[in-house]
Amino acid sequence: MLSYNLILLFFGLILVVKGADILVSCAISIGKKLNLSELAIGIVIVGFGTSLSELLVSIDAVINNAPDLSLGNIIGSNIANILLILGLISIFKDIEFGNQKEKKNETVWVLIITIIVVGTFVILTETQSSSPVTIYVGVGLICMLLAYLVYEFLIQKDVLQEDSENIKSYSQIISYLFLLIGLILLIAGSFYFVLGSKNLAIAFEIPEAIIGFTLVAFGTSLPELATGIIAAIKKQTKLAVGTILGSNVYNIVGIFAVILLAKGDEFPSSIDLYLESLLFMSFVTILFTLKIRKGFKIGGLYFRPYRIGRKTGIIFVLLYFAYVIYSYSGI
Question: How many CA atoms lie within 13 A of 209 on its CB side?
């Protein structure tokens, strides 16, 4: 049984890496034809595609009456996206942000959306809300997501793609066909990785929410990780950042909305299991936004704004592993 689950993990990882390679090339090709910037391609196109794994895992968990796993998954995925994925990418390749107002505001919008959704989660839990209230909130969240995507599309359209001119351009039909193939490989690979992770965790009697915060969250974040690393290798770091920002918004708004619409009556009556991870997710998003917009000093170390370099990347990764160790320490 152990060897079977390890095979699932390895097979899933191979599919995810190959799917990410195809997805990045085709997404950039499509974005060039639509006159979208790399950041917009990441947020609108790739961010959605890489979030499909979280969506499918969450829907599966909801259908199988495991909302704790589903909610833990989206919270843990957002933490992993910023700390682990951006951290790992920046260790190998500095991530530069433009200091123009519209580029700096990307991180602020993600922070505002995160705070709104966390506040909504707390209110619904504390008031023990059920349908039709949860349904109304779910619809409201979907409307907020659509408004965000329209805003991103309009604000980023026609921004010059300085770094993507050396990327091969495919025909429209080929681009969309291989984009679909890349997404299928990403989703399939993530599914097998998560399945192997869940089986191993259940065998060791780890609680569902903890599995969601850590193992499943990491598994469903594999598409973002693979896509980000491939994008960095191809010197498309703006696309990698857009993917993470877009994925976090899709996760916390879109997937949370799906959970509310499908299982609003079974929404958790206690916030105790989620409070620490929700607070940590908010802290991570604030830290990320502060680093990009203002920079800060810790002792004699100065962390410059508008970029994430190796120093910051190492701290982010260490923070992520500290979070995982802490999550399991109470078991």
Answer: 16
pLDDT > 90? residue 319 = yes
Residue 80 has pLDDT above 80, yes or no: yes
Residue 116's CATH number: 1.20.1420.30
Q: State the alpha helices, DSSP H only, in the chain.
A: 2-33, 38-40, 47-63, 67-79, 87-92, 101-126, 133-156, 172-203, 208-211, 217-220, 222-233, 237-249, 256-263, 272-293, 310-329
Contact predicate 218/232, CB 8 Å: no
CB 89 within 8 A of CB 322: no
User: Which of 208, 225, 224, 189 has its CA nearest to residue 71?
Assistant: 208
Structure tokens at 62: 């909801």
Rounded-to-integer distance, Cα 178 and Cα 48, Å = 16
* CB contact burial 226-238 (16+ within 10 A = b; e otherwise): bbbbbbbebebbb
Residues of the domain holding 54: 2-329
Q: How open is the CA angle 224-264-70, to the nearest 5 degrees?
A: 30
What pLDDT is attached to residue 160?
Answer: 47
Residue 324, class by beta-carbon neighbours within 10 Å (0-12 exposed, 13-18 middle, 19+ buried)?
buried
Number of domains into which the chain is organized: 1
pTM metric for this prediction? 0.81
Contact by Cβ (8 Å): 27, 242? no
Return the SS3 of 169: coil
Nearest to 267 by CA among 77, 133, 114, 100: 133
Please, what is the average pLDDT of the chain?
A: 79
